[in-house]
Predict the structure.
Amino acid sequence: LTIVVVCCVWLLLLANNVLASVYYVNSGDTIQDAIDLAISGDTIIVSPGIYYENLVLYGYDIILTGTDPDSIGVVASTIIDGSHYSDTDNASVITFEGSETADCVLSGLTITGGAGTNKGGFIYGGGIFGTQTNATVVSNIISGNSAGYGGGIFACNGLVQGNTIKNNQAN
């Protein structure tokens, strides 16, 4: 019986790793469509280009990354521009729901053009509104965003490291 249980647990762990998907987003596609398809454990790889979007990560522990987070040239040319928002109350470029763990990774992207999220009459997180997330935010360029509080990034409690955060405005 012990061998059967161990084998079943091993097969379940193997199945979880096999079930993880990788989505590739190319210029002309939308990143949010890939996020909408993804579940925790999935990876979304974004090709260089300009994506006019405001993204919501829904609390899933996904990896959202450019094709080469270690190349400043690739990061600089993989742009999520949130300046074309349709809802002025939800104009952050990236919004985390807050339940993400360190396994949720945002890396290798340029995040620009955000105007923040309205919560209780205050505008927070132009580039990234973290909602107290524990997500990992590494190797991004966060630039050209504005909000009342946290023009570039606000309320991210996870690892925030190796990002270039510049030319953002907070009032």
Observations:
- The first strand starts at residue 22 and ends at 25.
